[in-house]
Amino acid sequence: MRTSESQKTESNISKVRNLTAHKRTTQHPFSTVYKNSTKTPQPKTAEPPPEDDLYFYKNWARFADIMQVQPEQKSEDWANHLLRHLVPFVKGFQATLYIKTGDSLQLIGGYALNLGEIKSTIKVGENTIGQVAKYKEPLHIVNPQNSFTTVNTTQQVPIQGILTLPALYQNQTQGVLEILFYQPICEKHHQFLTQIMGNIGTNLCLLANAQLQQKNEELNEQLCASEEFRKLHSYLTEGLSYASHIQSAMMPGKLNLEGIFEDHFLIYEPKDIVSGDFYWVTQVTDELHPQRAKITFVAVVDCTGHGVPGAFVSIIGVTLLNEIVNQKRMTDPALILKMLNNGVRTRLKQSQGKNKDGMDVCLCKIEEKIDGCFLVTFAGAKRPLYYIQDKLLQKIKGDRQGIGGDCQFGNHCFTNKQITLSAGDRLFLSSDGYKDAANPRRKSLGQKKMENLLRQGHKGSMTQHHQQLLRALKTHQQGTAQRDDITLLGIQL
Question: Which CATH superfamily is domain 57-216 in?
Answer without folding.
Answer: GAF domain (3.30.450.40)
